Amino acid sequence: MVSGIHDQLTEVILQALPPLERKWWHTATIYQVYPRSFCDLNGDGIGDIPGITSKLDYLKALGIDVIWLSPIYKSPMDDNGYDISDYRDIAPEFGTLADFDRLVAEARLRGIGILLDLVVNHTSDEHPWFQESRKGKDNPFRDFYIWREPGAGSAPPNGLKSAFGGPAWTLDEPSGEYYLHLFSRRQPDLNWENPIVRREIYDMMNWWMERGIAGFRMDVIDYIGKQPDSSLVTDGPHLHDYLQEMHRETFGSRNILTVGEAWSATPGSALLYSGRDRHELSMVFQFEHVTQAWDETWGKWRPKPFDLVGLKSVLSKWQYALADDGWNSLFWGNHDLPRALSRYGDATGYPVESAKMLATVLHLLKGTPFIYQGEEIGMTNAAFTAIDQYRDIETLNMHRLHIEAGLSPEDFIKGANENGRDNARTPMQWNTLAYGGFSTVPPWIEVNPNYSTINAEAEVADERSIWNHYRRLIALRKSHEVIVYGEFQSWLDQHPDVFVYTRTLDRERLVVVANFSSRDVALHLPGELHCVGECLISNYEPVTSLGESISIRPYEAFAVLTRVE
Ligand code: TEU
Ligand code: CA
Prior knowledge:
Layout: H1 2-16, E1 30-33, H2 49-54, H3 56-62, E2 66-69, E3 73-74, E4 86-90, H4 97-109, E5 113-118, H5 128-133, E6 147-148, E7 169-172, E8 177-180, H6 195-210, E9 215-218, H7 239-249, E10 257-261, H8 267-274, E11 283-285, H9 288-291, H10 308-321, E12 329-330, H11 340-344, H12 351-363, E13 368-372, H13 393-404, H14 409-419, H15 456-461, H16 466-479, H17 481-485, E14 487-491, E15 498-505, E16 508-515, E17 521-524, E18 531-532, E19 534-538, E20 545-546, E21 549-552, E22 557-563
Parallel strand pairs: 1-2, 1-13, 2-5, 5-9, 9-10, 10-11, 12-13
Antiparallel strand pairs: 3-4, 6-8, 7-8, 14-15, 15-16, 16-22, 17-21, 18-20, 19-22
Helix pairs in contact: 12-16, 13-14
């Protein structure tokens, strides 16, 4: 009787939650291009849009569905384009609107969509809105930004800090007021409480969608509801109202992909952003697997040693939390993070094996995978030895501040070598020509000298390469529903070296086993995992059966597709 009621209740709950509507981006793989460092076609040392267009066949061969472009808008490039001075034009060093339209059209011919980076938490200080705003308290654009009276003794209004170091407030002498900038002083924060600001942004988004883009990646979107007077930056009281309004006013009626960057995201807030009845975003980027490895005091400049048990617990937590609602994004790297292979793999001892292992683990999880340019050919961290090789505003600011605060220059460079943003920003390595074929002149940032062995041309040609492994994984997601929708379960959570998880859909089950260490590991598998099946992918010889004890080699990873009765 009791169980009868329970069954009825379960039935009611299941009916209340309709099955997940299938979306094109569930099976998609996204490739991030950092335009400045991808391909320089006109020989000025800076990557450009015609350069990206010239590489579309390369991306098509890899099999990706969408290109996320880091910002290409007009910008003084204080933060490499995350400081926009005109939302409706292209930076001249990257090309023209005609070049952009051609990229969209050529990509579409190859079945590839273009995702734009929407940077609307702040603009450049050279944006006409800010130029007007700073003219005085009575200017009609004053309220486009966040201005406050000085605190006691003309100090900043409060202690809010910029992500790039120092106070988040800068005094503007003529009016005697401070403006807010949660990033550089050249990136003033927009005032989202002003409905005219929101209207301008929505109009601009619609303008780009009319040009045929496939969606938006939204920069620090968790900041837009900030309440600076109470030092509240993320998850402000109106954040989700704004996103629902944006959805209504812009992309709600279109079949596009939206992904919000949200360093503050928790599984709970991710369900608010991406829950099926929320009418907000397709998904968010969360960063728990990144920040859990940062030092409490020195942050990313003094990273903790790699800890697989911790990493597995974060990844699994997110898989479970968004199992029935919401959607995960999956990534190891981006333009702000170190190279995945250097961070999580073994770039010197087992570069090929560990790069393939990392790809296998990520691409067989539930969610939409993002590949950062160069990851698919095994590019590694920059290994700069002197501060003057770095270009990134964050690294250069933090260098000064950390040394003032007592970190030794050697320790800072060590931290920057591990976690600085320029690691991901060295030019794409295309071939063995000078500058890795990225440019014909010295690029804006040094090329990693390992381009002579690590480059796209060699990778594409080699059937057993990292690149070809990525190509297979991308194709598997298209041919096997269990990879897209299968239920996730992790096993052997406390094992320090090996990640084992399963994906189950109806009678199909995928068993994924991955060794994160450079040792041979003898593994005891629970009875539920013993099976015979088909090996979908591996980085040594194919594995088709799993028994009580198996032995796995350094960075070995494979997936066995089997049936459960
Ligand atoms: O990044 C947000 C952000 O918070 C990062 O700056 C992050 O704090 C840092 O890398 C970690 O130390 C986005 C963009 O991805 C980044 O490139 C921009 O610089 C930033 O916003 C400002 O637009
Ligand atoms: Ca160029």
